[in-house]
Give the backbone structure.
Amino acid sequence: MSDVLREICSIALFREVREKEPLKSLSAFLLKMGPGYSMEEMIDSYGEFVSTLYSLRADCDLSAAIWECLADDMNPYLRYKINELVEPEKNTRMSHLLELTAKRELDLLTRIGSYTSTEFKNEMIYDGYLPEFTSSHIDFKKRYMRMIDTLTTKGYGIYARYDFFRIKNGELTPVTNPDPISIEDLFCYERQRNLVYKNTKAFVEGRSFQDVLLYGDAGTGKSSTVKSAARLFFGSGIRLVEVPKAELHGLSEVIDLLSRVPLKFIIFIDDVSFDADDDRIGTLKSVIEGAASGARKNVAIYATSNRRHMIKETFSARENEIHTSDTIAEQLSLSERFGLRILFDKPNKDTFLEIVKGLAQAKGVDVPEEQLMKDAEQYAIRGGGRSARIARQFVDSL
């Protein structure tokens, strides 16, 4: 087993994989299989290695645990491949030696990951109890090169494991339990959704796209439309990044970070409204203007608001009639920067009941239609009015 330890020590390109688990504790165990260590020290180190593997993988799979670490590793080879995609104009050619090293080390990791507890036990020459683990014998070179070939659609690292993200304290954080809403869950408002979907499709395909403002009454499905549009194109390389209003100061930094990733990102700003003196208005304006100048090719801004103007108007703003037109122009200037502005108005009775009917059928609610419609109307009256959100709440209550 000394050869295995030497192989791990020789890793250069994927050096950080060697320094992390499970290879870190595996190396410590292999070291104590050498001369100068007692049987007790060797067994204890083996137990520590297997315990670490158990904590990483419920299936106790050494090969899969190494792959997870490798898939998250930002190494020089991956960095060069990403730069070729996001900055092709630089035309920085990667050394053939680097390519060759990557393939050799991936083959090496395949061999290391293929070992099982039985092979280690035989080497240890110990008849007592030893915990076991297994290996799925992943071909790392084949899988890694497939990942490289699909960077623009499948991503890498956290971008491969997650589709939804949120900015929190200036950091990009994966959303582990995102809203599962999809296109099949939405009813009515087909015209509005089709506009969003067509724009998103153009964005994915590298054609001209617009930043989108979805505005109108609360509960009409604006946020759900954005999330379902993103979900529809996850397999084509779309990722959704929600930016709370409190984080808008750092929006330029977020876009700069995302511009270095070879995927397409929808920055989602939900329920936007500003006071007239809010300095975040200027930040958002400048970012939206960046689309027109070509400053952001892989980032689109999708925002929702209950107000078309997005800026709260006060009576004091209209006290002086001389400046009224200036005030109105300022309020419009932000929303008009969105190339696509889509109204979601409150549904009338027929539309509301159509949404209820569609949701009830989708969820398998077994209630006679006449009774369903009657109960839905009564629920809407008690709930404060008709909306897609009220319709969903009513069906969920059944």
Remarks:
- Residues 349-397 form one domain.
- The longest strand covers residues 299-305.
- Strands lie at 164-168, 171-174, 212-216, 238-242, 264-269, 299-305, 340-344.
